Amino acid sequence: MSAGFIVTGTDTGVGKTIFAAGLTAALCGRYWKPIQAGLDGETDGEVVRRLTADSDVEILNEIYRLKQLMSPHLAAARDGVEIDLARLTLPQARKVPVLAAVAPQEAAAERSNIVALKPRGRSGLTAVPGNGTATATTRPLVIEGAGGALVPLTRQALQIDVFDSWALPVVIVARTSLGTINHSLLTIEALRRRNIMIQGVAFVGDANPEVEDDIANFGRVRRLGRLPWIQPLDEPTLKRTFDLSFRMEDFQQ
Ligand SMILES: Nc1ncnc2c1ncn2[C@@H]1O[C@H](COP(=O)(O)OP(=O)(O)O)[C@@H](O)[C@H]1O
Ligand SMILES: [Mg+2]
């Protein structure tokens, strides 16, 4: 299991926050939205908090809370600040009791064979089988980006540059409606160009299997599943729908 995932989208408003809430709950993870642009109404962190209220998760504080609903570099300028990339380092992993920290299907396997932490390539720390004496692991981090991958954070840097420095696999959240093939393949190309690992594409919306296939085939990416429109959009319904829509094995390798 990776130390976490970056959730990006093919666009703003595609369903990243709802997907990230479902994923955070499924992983018993930590949700982090480092840059929140737009403070009118519920923030993304507040939506995730509401949709995971009864789940074993943590919601981390944002680094930047910008008033305007705009691209981060512009929202920051309106607030008279410049985003300092050095402040966007990954939050420290914190150990928590292992049975609370792992996904349910892993819990049984790890119950008697508890884990130690060791570095693993680009993904940072990961839990590995130990000799049964340790009692803690870390919660996977679920990072929600602002808008899409090529959104500017400053006049010099795009969000994708920060994704690269975080070295975590990316989940692309994509619509299933008209226009998504182009947006999805462009996002995949941009990530590939920078050698950023792509975990797969998570679709949101009505079923459109041919289009989902085309994206997976042309983009050579894993199709993680599709979150349908959920009604009512509350925690139990999201949890149930997420479990039916995604296989956790796809997030474990
Ligand atoms: N699976 C879903 N079922 C119902 N409504 C959804 C779903 N996914 C997203 N929405 C709604 O669509 C809007 C945009 O979703 P959101 O997750 O905030 O997008 P993003 O984070 O990509 O900007 C929100 O009003 C959200 O409640
Ligand atoms: Mg969002």
Please tell me about this protein's structure:
The protein is of the alpha/beta class. The protein has a single domain (4-83, 139-251), classed as P-loop containing nucleotide triphosphate hydrolases (Rossmann fold). Helices cover 33% and strands 24% of the residues. The chain contains 9 helices and 13 strands. The protein has helices spanning 16-27, 44-51, 72-78, 98-101, 104-111, 159-166, 180-193, 209-219, 235-245; strands spanning 4-9, 30-32, 35-37, 58-59, 64-66, 95-97, 115-120, 124-129, 136-138, 141-148, 170-175, 198-204, 223-227. A 7-stranded parallel beta sheet has the order 4-2-10-1-11-12-13, with helices on both faces. The chain has a two-stranded parallel ribbon with strand order 3-5. A two-stranded antiparallel ribbon has the order 6-9. β7 and β8 form a beta hairpin. α1 packs across α2. It is globular, with a radius of gyration of 18 Å. The protein starts with a strand and ends in an 8-residue tail after the last helix. It binds adenosine-5'-diphosphate (ADP) and magnesium ion (MG). The site of adenosine-5'-diphosphate has 13 residues, from α1. Adenosine-5'-diphosphate is lined by residues 9, 12-18, 204, 227, 229-230, 233.
